[in-house]
Amino acid sequence: MCGIAGFVGTGDRGVLQRMTDAIRYRGPDAEGHWMEEDSGVFLGHRRLAIVDLSGGAQPMWTADGAIGVVFNGEIYNHVELRAELQAAGCQFVTDHSDTEVLLHGYRQWGDAFVERLNGFWAFVLYDRPRRRLFGSRDRFGKKPLYYFHEGGTFGWGSELPALLAHPQCPRDLSPLALKKYFAYGYIPAPRSICERVWKLPGGHSFSYDLTSRELKTWRYWEFVIEPDDSLLGAISDFEASPVCQSVCEELRTVLEASVKRRLMSDVPLGVFLSGGIDSSAIAALAAKHVPAGQLNTFAIGFNEPSFDESAHARFVAERLGTRHREEILDLDKSVALLPEIIGKLDEPLGDGSLLPTYLLSRFTRQHVTVALGGDGGDELFAGYDPFRALQKAELYSKLVPHPVHEAIRLVAARLPVSHQNLSLDFKIKRTLMGLSYRPQLWNAVWMSALEPRDLAQLFREPCDEEEVYSEAIEAWDRCKQPNLIDRALQFWTNLYLQDGIMAKVDRASMMNSLEARSPFLDIEFVNLARRIPWQLKLHGGTTKWILKKALAPLLPAEIIDRPKKGFGMPIGRWLREGRFEFDHARTFPHLDVAFAEQKHAAHMSGKADERLFLWSYWLLSQWMKK
Predict the structure, then answer these.
(1) 169 in catalytic set
(2) Among the options 2, 194, 244, 463, which is catalytic?
(3) 3-state DSSP: the chain helix, strand, coil percent, rounded to 5?
(4) 358 close to 508: Cβ distance less than 8 angstroms
(5) pTM of the predicted model as reported, rounded to 2 decimal places
């Protein structure tokens, strides 16, 4: 786990130093720089030492100096790949560095070697004989990789501040990216907040020819639902069938193997434990491969019951016999940390759970350097509330004429506003808001800070839905399955997981120099999940049904059956209490400040719940100050 930066073109060692200094917290243990000034190639690295502490320094080179690499991530099957490469005649220098596997893998198998990797990564290789760069990002985009190609210079880095340290990097805000930020709550790849600065999407690679200055990007992997309908049989009798037992056993076996792979570390390691089914399953499986009583688990709690899950985490830890640590925090005092956190964000991110994720990472880092978490389970197995709404939403949209729907929205808007976590009025209003639009936009609008009609007002121009929601439409339309559940699964997994969840977890953990690992996103487990029909994921109104059946032998029924609870914050109440200062007189490029003032007034008076917009708007204003 590290931070990388570099460029080809104009610049010097001082520029490279400033680029790596900007992401020092991603790798506080060491730094490395390499320059080939006659070719204008500069490679930089910040290291968080996890594996092969003495032999994993970067940039790393093949023994003949022909191929070098800067790498951020972990390759969990590096031992198997090393053995295969050694059998083919490759000579390794390090003892067990996964970084060196990238060098020999590229030389032996070419660009396609990334398809053999099991792990998460963002790396850039320099092939000196071919005067060529080759870079890649892992399948789900767990590790970030930004780049720009401007004025004869190609630069890259783990985060936007690293690129902005280069004088050639564009700095203008992108109006379209701002629209996407309010439409999604994040900025989907390949765009970034800056014009002509790009994010390499997950599952993509690139090449850059130093002679022709030609940049090429391509997709090497995509999450695609390919259900094996033979698993269904008679769905009414499925639970008692041998096929059900077989699927459940395979899920447990493959997930356990994934967890075991992610226990690979030469530094102390632990598990994030919220008390939900996903993190509890990871802890239970990890405990099977760690000496009794030696597994570290971590939880934070809050003094507001609606947002506190610490008792559930404690219950699971006691059942598993882990070495459990928890920190109970005052929510209202935690607000004071927001300016510090936002000041480190490379792009605005409108997910309110950024704060508790940061707090959990900060607490965990006091004891260990690596933590496993449960991210990915909801996206792979239809774990969110919108999945339950899809079929009813389809029927509603067919039967209810648009004028009647608008009347229903007006009635629902009169429901009393509650600031409880995932309150009923919030769910009803968000559902109806999404249903004002076509199905391709439902999932995006349900999660958005603003719906399209409001985007048009904020930006003082018509909202081009095809442009603003292009990623959501593509994720929906690229699904080969005709049903709504699989289409939604591809949206949540290809889009929200990468650019929302993974970005949040990466930034919150790396701000604290902590490596976060996600066993549910192991490629072998993902390939198994892709084959399971949606009827086994959402069954009888129960989300994650087959996963819950599979995990039942590992976890108490109280955990399996408890309702999902998001890792949220009382943002609505904080806004009403005036904890966030709004300077509406401040000039925002491209934004109608009067519109924001109206939204703010409606929220403060209790007439409407505008927490998502106001949080995103305030966070953007704080981010712009830096």
Answers:
(1) no
(2) 2
(3) 45, 15, 35
(4) yes
(5) 0.94
